[in-house]
Amino acid sequence: MKTVDCVERKGKYVYFTVVMAEGKEIDFRCPQEQGWNAEITLQLVQYKNRQAILAPAQVELKKPSRQED
């Protein structure tokens, strides 16, 4: 999985898109009035925050190490 986005709130539904590493997308929706919609949204925020924190560490790991002469 590459990312998860809350696409839009439209009418009585919230639409989400999951983007896979291969570029394929999976769309799904949930009723705006139901509580589990809020749980999905909070998990999206947590996932995005984790990605932001780990991104600099992943860049560091990919850098070639410099050897001292």
UniProtKB/TrEMBL annotation:
GO terms for cellular component: cytoplasm. The keyword Nucleotidyltransferase does not apply. One of its GO terms (biological process) is positive regulation of apoptotic process. InterPro entries: PHLA1/2/3. One of its GO terms (molecular function) is phosphatidylinositol phosphate binding. Keywords: Cytoplasm. It is found in: Cytoplasm. The keyword Cytoplasm applies. This is Pleckstrin-like proteiny-like domain family A member 1. The lineage of its organism: Eukaryota, Metazoa, Chordata, Craniata, Vertebrata.
